[in-house]
């Protein structure tokens, strides 16, 4: 078990290196360090010396990937790529191009992201499972058919519509919650109500449909037939046997996205002015703050890999038949 | 006129050719015809398919681009000159709707502008009032006639459409009843009463509705702005219709451009195993672990650099927008091919162990032959299911990407761009809702149809799921 | 039966919640209830200020904070127009002394060439104290408490507020001199360092010396040890600035934060190793003598300015313009400022939520987003802007002012087609000038908030002329007492004169395609780009729009590869020099990376500019400016575009809201009536919950048949 985990983690390292190389290339093909300096220094009366100074301070005056004049190992290590990447692996995100401690920012901004993402996941999961079970209960009836059509219709509505419409209706017309913003502690509840509700409603359509299929698959299995044959009531069959067994694929499906909850939701956070990691990433993209974007990519990839690992592990936990190779 | 073929046009048409070839291929093989027949019996799916077909026709018309010929200067019959602006066959067909541009916003069916302006009266005095629109309802001599005029046109439109539809339907029925050797009347009655095999009635109702909608647009759109106009006075209906091509192209080309890679790599990984598998797995795990938004954002920037450096090659706005659309498809493809690749790898691994493949290997058949003969045909249903399932998600993704400025070119008509501008319009008082509504309705219809159709296709092709329903 | 019971419980629940909600509390109040009656000013920021260090700060959003904290020696009078400088921490507005090569005193109007030295002598008021700040904190032995901290010690601090002790000290002339030396600091980037180095004697040399000094270690550089011949401390309250040439606009620079005081203690405090990694720097935590101090700087959520307890107490001006009395802007005359206790700025990325919150009473001032304009403003039959009924019902008031800025469309003068001094290109530019209807642009995209520009200089700045004599006769006619854009036919005629009849090249018949560079900035940009296309189409010219990101755009301008582009300029100070220098040849982007974005170059213009720069305002200067503007209009390197008008709205509880476009330190003049605000907020934000009740009722009712059939099915399977 432990050796398996170690092996998986070792396998993650080349992936992270690959991610690093790709993002690095993408960003520096597009942007020269001069561009970045100009963007950060502002537009008025910027001189070349100022740009050089800025680059020197942040280590962007080195060559990108290969330092020809240096000797030995330094040919590789005295480069922007190397110096910036090595630190990432130590989870030292360093300073953003605008001069702020990225690690500190991430530690501050991940809580608002979680404050939205966790309730959306939990409430959404409970609601979706309940409704999906109900639909599965009525399988083969008109209720089932129309519920599925309704789900498809809900899936077909752009997520932007839920956000724009929800904010307009609840925030602006009905005055029920603040239209945007955030606060710390218990005071944040009024700010997250609407985004959470929208997140849950937006995911209902596809969620119900997906879980319904899982339940139906389970219902058709032999043991359910046996249980039914034993004279168990339909609801007992559903809630006891089907639900318990169907939870395995559902929960392992959830495990994979657990770590990425930290990353937050890009659009929701931007619309509701929530200072989470999602809006952090969008801002960084728009400001072309390379250091932040790279850190977020690294973090995102890292969490994704953790998610994969957790999924593998959760399979072994719920189903001992799965062997770890 | 001088025709021109943009990259997306070319790919779009080749996609259609491939589809036609597939139909030809499938129609001769019973194991492929059977699931399609199942799809054809599903009335909801057939209604969806009809809607999709309508959208497809519009997209195809909108993909035939050409430079219109310019009138000769001063009667000088020298060299023929073409306008530098590209238009499509669709633009040509909807002619007046494209050109009837108001100054700024106007509500659906309005004949007055949306906001007040300083109007100079004949006596030289100025007042602030709502000016008449330049085109919307301009044919009306008396403004009070508007409602009756609209009603009159609706009646003409509906009846005209129904007549045309009846005519077309009769031709089809003649042909079918001729083939089925029954009388026309029997066939017609049977179809209407739902007695005919397959969803004939649904098809008839759907086509009738579509005909009526087209008829209404044809009689109303040249005289009124059915969905109003946007900030610079462009007809919203026209924009929404133009957006169909954008949506369809993103939905289809994205999967198509990356398909060869996904299929090739997925099969190689599953078939050869060993280090090839490791490398390919590494490749797609790495790519899929990068947050997609970032990849797309970088690619959008990259493209801008390319276009700046090769500015002379993109003299027309449409060409630039087109390249950007293609790039968006490619980059969306890169972020989404990995899941297909993983699926194919798994399926190939299963197939590899199947008897006939093992037998072929034992006989020393070449790898390429095995792959082409045995693997590819047997995984094609997965490819197709994933294409139809991805379609709607991609159409929706376009809108979200446009929000962070990394979607299609801002000058290109797309539902995403429309929704994004509408976001600001919601704050207006009185509220400007028509752009948002038009975009959402069109997008909803397309995505809903695609989803319903995709469900039917998946149910028909995926034997595992067939058991359930 | 069970269902009915359930219904009852639900109904009771709903009634309870609806009863609770009918109090006078706004559910959607984004702030804690306890703050309702506090004298807090609420506003927003859309992007975190990058630099709060007064040496680097140059943006509007930074000035919002810095100007309340840092105090230069002079400031603009809050009420008087035209803008007038008055002392802030100085005892008087400094007057320059001109001397020739021998040191002999010259008169103001002496020949520019003869002037070899200009001296500004400034006297600082005694008794001004800095805000409480840990940099000044002293231990019992009298040593500076937080200087010489180790990295480990610094590690425990995350924000400035974590330092428990603070201290203060008196402002001296040394602090001003220290700051001027910081302009040359090798580790801080000052946007004006190069520019000031041309004038201030010895500043460039200091830059060299400091570069040397910076090479040895990266710690604190004590600028007190460096002498600059041009910046001298005379005594505790007096200092002198020596310029190498006459530059009458220099005194305006003295009102900017570049010339604010900086205590060496703060510089040394922030320079300690480890502080920077914690973001404890001058860019994040300013230290000043002004009425407010920044106590919370969280760029992810909000920034808080709080009243500086050590502030000396300035009095509100008692003289203003004639209309100020009626507007109530003199009611506070003679009272001690500041009036508001704190200012909270919340992060607000999107314009629409910000606007909505303003309407709900949660922000105390607002500009107007173009899209909500019609909701706020209507035009009277005379074309005057006035508030809509909705705004008047809320007692919201409107303040308008033409901004000292210009928004123009530039031609790249190095371009082969549109640029250059050839008559053909000039005619083409002039034809386009007529065709692009800025009046329409203003009315569609700026809702009439702007006036079409007749030249580079906006109204309110010396040199601009109103009425018939001031019109750009190449684009406008003066008809019936107002300007009228020339008819499009005239533009067409010019175009065919230029050799492009109907937008086709007369020789080849090829249609003329021009390129417009634009920064793609979200959904709004599409409509304006379409509009530009429509304008050029009037002449038969195809306008190809190249949208790109900000960096690329800048690069194109810098390298001169753009053809036509949109650009703008905001005045640094109210002097025509600050606008005309945008067309001064040696300032060209491609030549010197200056601010002349269209790379315009005309020898006659340049010669006049050099003369004009050194002249005092007066008829003579006006004549020179008229000549320059005429040259520029004739060459038409820009479509002059328009000067935006600032419309700001403010609620009834917000006082002394007179717009002042030069002064940024205006928060101290403002007043807030929190009680009134709390009442209004509650009135405007009554929660409407019946739709929610209806929704839940519908859901509930629709669940009943489902429940019935559930029971039925349950029994069926049991059978």
The main sheet of chain B orders its strands as: 1-2-3
- What percentage of residues of chain B falls in helices of 4 or more residues? 55-70%
- Superfamily (CATH H level) name of the domain at 243-465 in chain B: MetI-like
Mean pLDDT of chain A: 80
Main sheet characteristics of chain A: none
SSE string of chain A: HHHHHHHHHHHHHH
Poorly predicted tracts of residues of chain A: none
pLDDT average of chain B, as an integer?
82
Oligomeric state of this protein = heterotrimer
Q: Name the CATH class of the largest domain in chain A.
A: Mainly Alpha
Secondary-structure arrangement, i.e. CATH architecture of the largest domain in chain A? Orthogonal Bundle
Radius of gyration of chain A (CA) equals 25 Å
What characteristic shape of chain A results from the CA principal axes? globular
Number of helices of chain B: 17
Query: Using DSSP, what is the number of strands of chain B?
Result: 5
Fraction of residues in β-strands of chain A: under 5%
Global structural class of chain A: mainly alpha
**Helix content bin of chain A:** over 70%
| Relative strand content of chain B | under 5%
Looking at this protein, list some descriptive labels.
heterotrimer, B: 469 residues, mainly alpha, MetI-like fold, 3-stranded antiparallel β-sheet, two-stranded antiparallel ribbon, 17 helices, 5 strands, globular, disordered C terminus, C: 719 residues, alpha+beta, Dipeptide-binding Protein, domain 1, Dipeptide-binding Protein, domain 3, 3 domains, 7-stranded mixed β-sheet, 5-stranded antiparallel β-sheet, 24 strands, 32% helix
Structure description:
- The complex is a heterotrimer of chains A (325), B (469) and C (719).
- Chain A has 2 domains: 11-90, no CATH class; 104-318, MetI-like (MetI-like fold, Orthogonal Bundle).
- Chain A is 74% helix and 0% strand.
- With 325 residues, chain A is mostly helical.
- In chain A, helix 6 packs across helix 9.
- With 469 residues, chain B is mainly alpha-helical.
- Among the domains of chain B are: 143-220; 243-465, MetI-like (MetI-like fold, Orthogonal Bundle), CATH 1.10.3720.10.
- Chain B is built from 17 helices and 5 strands.
- In chain B, the strands form 2 sheets. In chain B, strands 1-2-3 form a 3-stranded antiparallel sheet. A two-stranded antiparallel sheet of chain B has the order 4-5.
- Chain C folds into 3 domains: 3-21 and 688-718; 66-278, Dipeptide-binding Protein, Domain 1 (Dipeptide-binding Protein, domain 1), CATH 3.90.76.10; 405-646, Dipeptide-binding Protein, Domain 3 (Dipeptide-binding Protein, domain 3, Roll), CATH 3.10.105.
- Chain C is 32% helix and 17% strand.
- The model of chain C is unreliable at 10-23 (pLDDT under 50).
- Chains B and C meet through strand 5, helix 11 and helix 15 of B and helix 10, helix 14, helix 16, strand 20 and helix 17 of C.
């Amino acid at each position: 078990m432990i050796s398996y985990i170690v092996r998986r983690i070792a396998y993650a390292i080349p992936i992270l290196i690959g991610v690093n190389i790709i993002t690095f290339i993408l960003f520096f093909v597009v942007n020269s360090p001069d561009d970045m300096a100009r963007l950060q220094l502002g537009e008025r009366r910027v001189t070349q010396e100022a740009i050089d100074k800025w680059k020197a301070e942040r280590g962007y005056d080195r060559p990108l990937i290969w330092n020809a004049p240096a000797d030995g190992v330094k040919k590789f290590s005295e480069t922007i790529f190397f110096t910036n990447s090595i630190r990432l692996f130590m989870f030292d995100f360093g300073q953003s191009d605008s001069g702020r401690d990225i690690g500190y920012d991430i530690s501050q901004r991940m809580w608002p992201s979680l404050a939205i993402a966790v309730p959306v996941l939990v409430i959404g999961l409970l609601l979706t499972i309940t409704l999906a079970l109900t639909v599965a209960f009525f399988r083969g009836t008109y209720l089932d058919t129309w519920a599925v059509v309704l789900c498809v219709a809900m899936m077909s509505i752009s997520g932007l519509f839920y956000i724009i419409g929800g904010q307009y209706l609840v925030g602006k017309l009905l005055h029920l919650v603040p239209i945007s913003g955030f606060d710390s502690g218990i005071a944040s509840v009024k700010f997250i109500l609407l985004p959470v509700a929208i997140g849950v409603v937006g995911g209902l359509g596809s969620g119900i449909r997906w879980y319904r299929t899982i339940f139906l698959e389970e219902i058709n299995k032999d043991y359910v037939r046996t249980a039914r044959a034993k004279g168990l009531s339909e609801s007992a069959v559903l809630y006891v046997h089907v639900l318990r067994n169907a939870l395995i694929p559902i929960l392992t499906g959830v495990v994979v996205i657990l770590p990425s909850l930290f990353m937050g939701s890009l659009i929701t956070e931007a619309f509701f002015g929530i200072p989470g990691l999602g809006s952090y990433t969008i801002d960084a993209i728009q400001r072309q703050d390379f250091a932040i974007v790279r850190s977020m990519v690294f973090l995102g990839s890292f969490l994704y890999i953790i998610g994969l690992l957790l999924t593998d592990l959760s399979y072994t936990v719920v189903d001992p038949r799965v062997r770890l190779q | 006129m001088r025709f021109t073929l943009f990259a997306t046009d070319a790919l779009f048409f080749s996609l259609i050719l491939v589809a036609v070839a597939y139909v030809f291929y499938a129609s001769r093989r019973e194991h492929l015809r059977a699931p399609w027949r199942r799809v054809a019996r599903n009335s909801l799916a057939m209604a969806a398919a009809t809607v999709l077909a309508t959208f497809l026709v519009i997209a195809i018309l909108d993909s035939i681009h050409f430079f219109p010929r310019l009138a000769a200067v001063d009667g000088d019959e020298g060299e023929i000159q073409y306008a530098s602006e590209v238009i499509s066959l669709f633009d040509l067909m909807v002619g007046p709707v494209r050109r009837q541009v108001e100054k700024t916003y106007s509500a659906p069916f309005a004949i007055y502008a949306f906001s007040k302006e300083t109007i100079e009266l004949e006596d030289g005095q100025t007042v602030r009032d709502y000016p008449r629109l330049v085109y919307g309802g301009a044919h009306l001599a008396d403004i009070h006639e508007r409602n009756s005029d609209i009603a009159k046109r609706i009646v003409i439109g509906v009846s005209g459409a129904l007549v045309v539809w009846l005519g077309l339907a009769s031709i089809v029925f003649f042909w079918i009843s001729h083939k089925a050797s029954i009388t026309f009347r029997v066939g017609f009655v049977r179809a209407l009463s739902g007695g005919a095999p397959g969803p004939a009635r649904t098809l008839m109702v759907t086509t009738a509705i579509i005909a009526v909608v087209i008829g209404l647009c044809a009689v109303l759109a040249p005289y009124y702005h059915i969905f109003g106009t946007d900030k610079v006075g462009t007809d919203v209906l026209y924009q929404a219709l133009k957006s169909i091509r954008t949506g369809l192209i993103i939905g289809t080309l994205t999967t198509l451009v990356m398909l060869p890679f996904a299929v090739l790599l997925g099969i190689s990984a599953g078939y050869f195993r060993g280090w090839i598998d490791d490398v390919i797995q590494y490749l797609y795990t790495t790519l899929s672990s990068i947050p997609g938004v970032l990849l797309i954002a970088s690619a959008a920037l990259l493209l801008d650099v390319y276009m700046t450096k090769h500015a002379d090659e993109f003299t027309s706005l449409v060409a630039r927008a087109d390249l950007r659309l293609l790039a968006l498809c490619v980059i969306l493809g890169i972020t989404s091919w990995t899941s297909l690749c993983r699926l194919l790898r798994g399926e190939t691994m299963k197939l590899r162990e199947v008897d006939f493949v093992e037998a072929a290997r034992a006989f020393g058949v070449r790898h390429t032959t095995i792959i082409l003969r045995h693997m590819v045909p047997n995984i094609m249903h997965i490819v197709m299911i994933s294409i139809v399932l991805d379609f709607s998600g991609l159409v929706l993704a376009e809108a979200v990407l446009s929000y962070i400025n990394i979607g299609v070119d801002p000058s290109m008509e797309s539902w995403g761009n429309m929704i994004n501008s509408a976001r600001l319009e919601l704050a207006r008082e009185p509220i400007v809702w028509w752009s948002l509504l038009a975009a959402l309705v069109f997008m909803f219809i397309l995505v809903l149809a695609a989803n319903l159709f995709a469900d039917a296709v998946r149910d028909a092709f995926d034997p595992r799921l067939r058991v359930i329903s | 039966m069970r269902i009915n019971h359930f219904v009852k419980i639900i109904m009771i629940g709903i009634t309870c919640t609806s009863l609770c909600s009918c109090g006078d509390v706004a559910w959607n109040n984004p702030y804690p209830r306890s703050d309702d009656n506090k004298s807090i000013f609420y506003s927003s920021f859309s992007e975190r200020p990058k630099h709060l260090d007064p040496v680097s700060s140059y943006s509007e959003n930074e000035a919002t904070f810095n100007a309340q904290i840092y105090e230069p020696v002079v400031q603009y009078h809050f009420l008087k127009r035209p803008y007038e400088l008055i002392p802030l921490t100085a005892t008087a507005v400094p007057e320059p002394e001109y001397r020739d090569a021998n040191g002999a005193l010259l008169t103001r109007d002496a020949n520019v060439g003869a002037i070899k030295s200009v001296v500004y002598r400034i006297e600082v008021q005694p008794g001004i104290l800095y805000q409480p700040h840990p940099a000044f904190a002293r231990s019992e032995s009298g040593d500076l408490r937080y200087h010489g901290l180790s990295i480990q010690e610094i590690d425990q601090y995350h924000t400035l507020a974590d330092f428990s002790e603070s201290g203060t000290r008196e402002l001296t002339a040394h602090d001003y001199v220290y700051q001027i030396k910081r302009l040359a600091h090798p580790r801080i980037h000052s946007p004006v360092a190069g520019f000031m180095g041309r004038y201030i004697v010895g500043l460039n040399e200091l830059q060299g010396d400091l570069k040397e000094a910076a090479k040895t270690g990266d710690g604190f550089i004590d600028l007190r040890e460096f002498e600059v011949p041009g910046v001298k401390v005379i005594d505790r309250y007096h200092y002198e600035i020596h310029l190498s040439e006459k530059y009458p606009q220099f005194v305006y620079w003295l009102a900017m934060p570049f010339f604010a005081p900086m205590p060496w203690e703060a510089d040394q405090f922030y320079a300690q190793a480890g502080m920077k990694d914690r973001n404890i720097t001058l860019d994040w935590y300013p230290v000043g003598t002004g009425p407010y101090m920044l106590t919370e700087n969280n760029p992810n959520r909000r920034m808080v300015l709080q009243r500086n307890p050590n502030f000396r107490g300035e009095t509100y001006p008692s003289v203003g313009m004639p209309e100020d009395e009626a507007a109530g802007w003199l009611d506070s005359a003679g009272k001690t400022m500041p009036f508001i206790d704190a200012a909270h700025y919340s992060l607000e990325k999107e314009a629409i939520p910000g606007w909505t919150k303003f309407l709900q009473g949660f922000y105390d001032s607002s500009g107007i987003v173009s899209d909500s304009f019609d909701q706020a403003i209507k035009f009277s039959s005379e074309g005057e802007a006035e508030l809509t009924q909705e705004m008047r019902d809320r007692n919201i008031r409107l303040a308008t002012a033409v901004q000292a800025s210009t928004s123009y469309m530039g031609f790249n003068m190095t371009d082969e087609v549109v640029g250059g001094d050839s008559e053909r290109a000039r005619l083409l530019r002039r034809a386009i000038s007529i065709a692009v209807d800025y009046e329409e642009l203003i009315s569609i995209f700026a809702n009439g908030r702007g006036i079409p520009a007749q030249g580079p200089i906006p109204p309110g700045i010396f040199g601009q002329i109103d009425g018939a004599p001031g019109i750009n006769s190449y684009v406008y006619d003066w008809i019936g007492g107002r300007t009228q854009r020339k008819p499009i036919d005239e533009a067409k005629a010019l175009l065919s004169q230029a050799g492009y009849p109907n937008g086709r090249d007369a020789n080849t018949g090829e249609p003329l395609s021009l390129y417009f560079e634009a920064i793609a900035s979200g959904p709004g940009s599409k409509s304006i780009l379409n509009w530009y296309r429509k304008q050029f189409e009037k002449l038969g010219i195809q306008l190809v729009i190249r949208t790109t990101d900000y960096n690329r755009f800048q690069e194109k301008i810098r390298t001169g590869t753009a053809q036509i582009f949109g650009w703008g300029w905001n005045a640094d100070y109210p002097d025509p020099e600050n606008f005309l220098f945008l067309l001064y040849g040696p300032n060209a982007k491609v030549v010197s990376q200056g601010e002349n974005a269209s790379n315009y170059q005309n020898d006659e213009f340049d010669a006049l500019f050099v003369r004009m720069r050194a002249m005092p305002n007066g008829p003579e200067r006006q004549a020179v400016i008229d000549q320059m503007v005429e040259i520029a209009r004739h060459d038409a390197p820009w479509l002059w575009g328009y000067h935006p008008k600032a419309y700001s709205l403010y609620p009834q509880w917000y006082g002394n809201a007179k717009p002042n476009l030069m002064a940024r330190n205006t928060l101290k003049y403002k007043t807030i009536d929190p009680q009134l605000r709390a009442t209004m907020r509650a009135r405007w934000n009554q929660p409407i919950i019946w739709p929610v009740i209806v929704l839940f009722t519908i859901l509930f009712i629709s669940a009943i048949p489902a429940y019935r059939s559930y029971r039925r099915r349950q029994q069926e399977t049991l059978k």
